[in-house]
Specification:
about 30% helix; single chain; mainly alpha; disordered N terminus; binds heme C; Cytochrome C3; two-stranded antiparallel ribbon; about 200 residues
Length: about 200
């Protein structure tokens, strides 16, 4: 009621009346005719207003669908739980090559989203230590899922079958295949039959 009274009084009243009414209600009201003080400039001025990104709000129905879809996705609490669903090799280690072939992981060719993955290079190379049953098949295809040619050629291997002397001892020391196997790829100590393909048994 009070606010209403003030409001109606200030409407259309003279500056004198307005001053009288306002100085009763508020302290420090300048009398009419007082030259207004030069305002202090604010010290810092915010010029750019940060606008939140504007996304159209989806309608309720599509939100509900989204939540339902989310609920149907498997939820994992830890990396160990994720690893548990990946295919394993005969030694029980994650078989990353099969994981790519099953579409469970899709290695990116580059951090640059514009870069296209080159097609896998389907050339197998037989590396023969001369001990029957121990020949090695080096599969280019599986390696080119993850690596570019220049990760191996020509620094680790010259591009010519048989031109790179290798041995198990060197591999265990981290040379040749051991530059990656035992570090970022399955370990030599447990992966014998994956390289020595005939060690897997009569059919492997
Ligand atoms: C990452 C692939 C890879 C794995 C895993 C691997 N080898 Fe080898 N192995 C090779 C290559 C390559 C050679 C060298 C072939 C040559 O002489 O040119 C080799 C050579 C050998 C040789 C020949 C003699 C020598 O010492 O060079 C034997 C025996 C052998 N490996 C046994 C094994 C056994 C047993 C395991 C498992 C404990 C194993 N390899 C795991 C790739 C592998
Ligand atoms: C993980 C390592 C690695 C990668 C990646 C790789 N290579 Fe190789 N490449 C090898 C090895 C090991 C050999 C056999 C060397 C030996 O026998 O001494 C080889 C041999 C070759 C040879 C010789 C074949 C012959 O018959 O003489 C060519 C050609 C070749 N690679 C091309 C490529 C191309 C093209 C790419 C990329 C698409 C590529 N490589 C990626 C490891 C690799
Ligand atoms: C520059 C790194 C690198 C080098 C060098 C390398 N590899 Fe690999 N290799 C990989 C990666 C990465 C994988 C996929 C991950 C895994 O299987 O653990 C792989 C996978 C493989 C596989 C599994 C293929 C399949 O289909 O399951 C074989 C067999 C193999 N490598 C043999 C070799 C042999 C033999 C050599 C040496 C002549 C070699 N690799 C050298 C990185 C390398």
């Amino acid at each position: 009621m009070f606010a209403l009274a003030v409001g109606s009084m200030s409407l259309g009243c003279s500056t004198e009346t307005r001053y009288r009414v306002f100085s009763v209600i508020f302290d420090g009201v300048p009398p009419p005719g007082t030259p207004s003080k030069p305002r202090r400039r604010p010290v810092a001025v915010m010029t750019a207003r940060v606008e939140p990104p504007v996304a159209p709000l989806p309608d309720l129905e599509s939100l509900e669908e989204l939540v339902e879809e989310e609920d149907q996705q498997p939820h994992y609490e830890s990396f160990a739980e994720i690893l548990a669903v990946f295919p394993k090799d005969a030694q029980g280690n994650v078989d990353w090559v099969e994981a790519v072939e099953l579409g469970m992981v899709a290695p990116r060719p580059s951090l640059d989203p514009e870069v296209q993955a080159p097609p896998p290079f389907p050339v197998d190379i037989k590396i023969d230590p001369g001990i029957p049953g121990f020949e090695v098949i080096f599969p280019h295809a599986a390696h080119t899922y993850w690596l570019g040619c220049n990760n191996c050629h020509q620094e680790i291997f010259v591009m010519k079958a048989g031109a790179n002397p290798m041995s198990m001892a060197k591999i265990f020391e981290g040379e040749a295949c051991g530059r990656c196997h035992g570090k970022v790829a399955f370990a030599p100590a447990t992966g014998c039959p994956r390289c020595h393909v005939r060690l897997g048994g009569p059919t492997g």
